[in-house]
Amino acid sequence: MFEIAAAPTQGGGIVGLILPFVLMFVIFYFLLIRPQQKKQKTRNAMLGALKKGDKVVTIGGLHGTIMEITDDVVVLKVNDVTKLTFDRSSISHSVNTDSEA
């Protein structure tokens, strides 16, 4: 009286399960991972190009001029008297002054 119909089988079962995950990874790569890698590369290039006399801003917002620089330490001159020591990685960005160039 009651017949049980067999469930239809999918031909590409494993592909149907993996394809959404691969698609999500590709989207995350192009929207999140790749732009972050580019940003990190430009930041590392900026930190590598720092030299004595450059005007910089720290992550905390302190403006100063580089007096001494080593591989991992930067000494900034904040005013005529004050010199502060920072890690090189704490430099946010370099301030370009076109009038001096």
TrEMBL record:
GO terms under cellular component: plasma membrane
Residue ranges of the TM segments: 12-33
Family matches, as Pfam families: YajC
One GO term (biological process): protein transport
Subcellular location: Cell membrane
InterPro entries: Preprotein_translocase_YajC (IPR003849)
Keywords: Cell membrane, Membrane, Protein transport, Translocation, Transmembrane, Transmembrane helix, Transport
Domain of life: Bacteria
Membrane topology term: Single-pass membrane protein
Family from the record: Belongs to the YajC family.
PANTHER family (alphabetical): SEC TRANSLOCON ACCESSORY COMPLEX SUBUNIT YAJC
Official protein name in the record: Preprotein translocase subunit YajC
